[in-house]
Design a protein that fits this description.
It contains two helices and two strands. It is mainly alpha-helical and 94 residues long.
């Protein structure tokens, strides 16, 4: 799952499972938020990760429309509702 506006990617476990996009984003949000608590107070890395956490929260709250890219070479993903889903053939470079 790729979020181009944030230059952020959530990797997959390479096995089939049923999940929602919301759950994927909230898990990334929670994991990153937990990670920032382990970093030093003045850490530059902490500030960058905290910015990503803030942006992920905004996506969860759907403050503005955003695009998602799902890389699914086997074509097994399903989307409900699917009105605004656009399916494209994968690039050979990926």
């Amino acid at each position: 799952l790729e979020i181009p506006s944030l230059e952020f990617t959530i990797g997959s476990e390479r096995r089939r499972h049923i999940d929602s996009i919301y759950n994927q984003i909230i898990n990334a949000y929670e994991n990153l938020e937990m990670h920032t608590q382990l970093l030093g107070e003045d850490s530059e890395e902490k500030a960058k990760i905290a910015n990503v956490v803030t942006n992920l929260k905004a996506l969860l709250d759907v403050e503005r429309p955003f695009d998602l890219i799902i890389h699914d070479p086997r074509g097994l993903s399903e989307f409900n509702p699917s009105e605004k889903v656009r399916i494209e053939a994968p690039d050979e470079d990926r």
